[in-house]
Structures are given as structure tokens and as C-alpha cells.
Amino acid sequence: MIYKRSSALFVEAQRVIPGGVNSPVRAFKSVGGDPIFVKEAKGAYLYDEDGRTLIDYINSWGPMILGHAYPPVVDAVVTKAQKGTSFGMPTEIETEIAKLAVSMVPSIDKIRFVNSGTEACMSAIRLARGFTNREKIIKFAGCYHGHSDSFLIQAGSGAVTFGSPNSPGVTKGTAKDTLLADYNNLDQIEALFKANPEEIAAIIVEPVAGNMGCIPPKNGFLEGLRSLCDQYNALLIFDEVMTGFRLAKGGVQELKGVQADIVTFGKVIGGGLPVGAFAARDEIMNYLAPLGPVYQAGTLSGNPLAMAAGLAMLTAIDTDKALFTRLEEKTAYLHKGMADALSNHTITHTINRIGSMISVHFAKDEVVDFKTAAAGDNDTFKKFFHGLLAEGIYIAPSAYESWFITDALTYEDLDTTIAAVAKVASTL
Ligand code: PMP
User: Fold this and answer.
1) How many Å apart are CA 327 and CA 355, to the nearest integer?
2) Which residue is catalytic, options 45, 57, 70, 144?
3) Strand 403-404's sheet: what is its strand order?
4) For ligand 1, is residue 117 a contact (CB within 6 Å)?
5) CB 211 near ligand 1, within 6 Å
6) Is 144 noted as a catalytic residue in this protein?
7) Which domains does the chain have, with CATH numbers?
8) Range of lowest pLDDT (158-172, 215-229, 281-295)
9) Does ligand 1 have an atom closer than 6 angstroms to the CB of 144?
10) Residues bearing N6-(pyridoxal phosphate)lysine (predicted)?
11) Mean pLDDT for the stretch of residues 299-324
12) pTM over 0.95
């Protein structure tokens, strides 16, 4: 068995960690088999505990946009670590990364750092509720905004992969304040506003969805959300945990020219260390403690190692003028190669892509929301996943996830991947 050591490690892990993993999507529950234990990674490659090399299309679920162990990030962390790992006092580097982030992203004046995307989104809706003095929020079925209670209502990503889009443990009281709509459906949003004209604090949306596979917004969708929020005095929250600093320097706000009131970040902003952040214009951010009444805090928030990694990462992205074009070209190349390979073997599929996010849906119709994503053939996906893995290609072990393209991938890696897709397609 090729994964002998990984499987043995998994047995050990399950004795002391629920399901053997510290985050459910890491388990192979929906595709079957044992998860692979990784030993180290460099650039576009993972080196697993059984001595295999895998081309990585997950990239820690998004952060490693420049590849694993990117030297400027590693150097920044090592240098910082020697000077103390946490102080619980202000440090200059927090202002440096805040200034840089504010200069890169449209429509934000201030940013606060937290430790995860979950914390960022959880804090963003508290701030929106405090600012508007309203209680309800709207989220979209299949969007994922972390595991805080208000968001585990028809949640995407691991929550839907493991059959818990509505998690037990979330009180009815909390659930009733989260209103739901289908992604890309403005009529439903309008109806929700009409039914609750003065109660909706905010809409939270992945401006490009990545947690039901990759689903770009239809033309006019984000603009429509903006104008409905303006009409009903609600805030528009863009959850750019996945898309921020990935689809453009300024995220989807820049890419699509639509402004949000609050923006949340995670993944790329921490360069692979635990970082999240939320940001808005002054008027909104000044509502936060210690300036304003909305409380939010964190012992390790703005941690020096995390800030050093994030600063090195954002600096690299800010200074490399050709990065997003390169990522787009690589992803488009992969898209075409995979589409040709699947079509040549008459496999029913739809590939969704925007910038460096891409996903293969084994569905015959356009995939525009959770329902159309869920119509994909999961048995084919399972075979596809395991077939690629056997060829040394590591994609997310769920059909409800986006792939993340890193700049470390070479065209040779992409050709290897396309050849593997062709080989696997011949067996589907
Ligand atoms: N929002 C989005 C759009 C995400 O994709 C994720 C994580 N995949 C989160 C929030 C939660 O981030 P974290 O896992 O860092 O808590």
C-alpha cells in the first residue's frame, strides 16, 4: 500500500483528535480513504510521509499564492521569532502591514487584525449590527464564512461536505436572525428586504464564491446587492477571505468595481500564518472598542510572527506588477487543457474559473448557485479525485471546493496535470 505511513499516522491521530483532523475538510470522508499526512512542502509540491511528491492544488486552502515555503516569508518569520513571539503590546509592524493593506484595497480606511477568517467574519457582522442597530443578516446558501454560529445556516465547504450545513448547537434564536438566499439571485434579496425593511443589518457575501466550488457572480449581481443595501440602509460585507489579495491586489472590489462597506480577509493576508482581518471606512471602524461601543479583542491578534509573514506576503504581491496576469494565464492554460481532456473522453462537465480560482463540476448545466453545484455527479468526482491522487496530483477531497493556483506552478507542472486528467478521464 503506497500510503502505509499516512494510514498508520491517521490511526494514531484518531485516538486523540476527533476524526483525526483539526479541521473536517482535511478528512477524506466524502471521497473515501485515509487523508494523506504531509511532511513538508516547497514551491508547488507537497512531500508526504510516504515519500511521494504531489503537485498541490489546495495550497493550504488558499494562502500559499506564491508557493510553499516562499523564502521572503520564511526569512521574515525566522528573524522575528528570535526577537520574541508575542507581547500583547502594540508593535510597529502592525501599523506597517495595516498601512500597506489600506493602500492596496479600495474603500477601506482602517483595518483590524484577528487570527482567522472565522473571527474576521464573526466580528464584521457584530460591527454591522452595532453600527446599524439592526439584528438580521442575509447570507447565501452554499457560502461559507467560518464556523461561527450565525453562519452555520446552509453553509458551504466542509459543512456541506459532511452533511452539517445547519449545525446542531446553533440556537434557534441565532438561526432566526440569519436570512437565506440563493447565490446570484437578486429577486430573493429584494423580497427579503421588502419583508424585513428595517431589520437587516447587512448582507454578507463571498463576492466570488469558492465554497461550493468556484462560482463567479453573474453580471450585475454585486452591483444589485450594492444598490439594494443602499436603498434599505443595510451594509454590504464582502467576505474576501478567499479572494482578497488573490484575484487582484484590491480583491473583488477592484476586479469588479463594486464597493463594499466592510471587507473581511484571511488566507493570503497571513502568508500561511493564522491571520484574519476586517476593514471598513473610518465611520464604521470607529465603532469598535476602544474608540466605540462594539467589543472585539484577541490575546494573539497582531502577533509579530503572523504580521511579519503577512507583511512579507503583501509586499511581494504589491511589488510584482505581473503576478495576477501570470496567475490568470496559468489558470486559463490549465482550464483549456482539462476541458479538452474531459471533452475528448465525452465526460459531462462544467469548469468554472475566475483569476486563479478554478473548479471542475461533473454537472451538465451551468453552475451558478448551491443547487446547480449540488447537481454534480459525486461518484464521478470521487473517481476523479482518487485517479488524480494516484497520478501525484492533489486536489481538494470534496466537489464543493475551489482549486487554488499558485505562481510556483510551472507550465511543465500544468502539462503533467493535464496529462493526468486525460488519463483519469479515460477511466471515468
Ligand atoms: N470565509 C471564507 C470565504 C472562507 O473560504 C473561509 C475558510 N475557507 C472562512 C471565511 C473561514 O476562515 P478560517 O478557516 O480561517 O476561519
Assistant:
1) 7
2) 144
3) 350-354, 357-361, 403-404
4) yes
5) yes
6) yes
7) 4-69+322-425 (3.90.1150.10), 71-319 (3.40.640.10)
8) 158-172
9) yes
10) 267
11) 98
12) yes
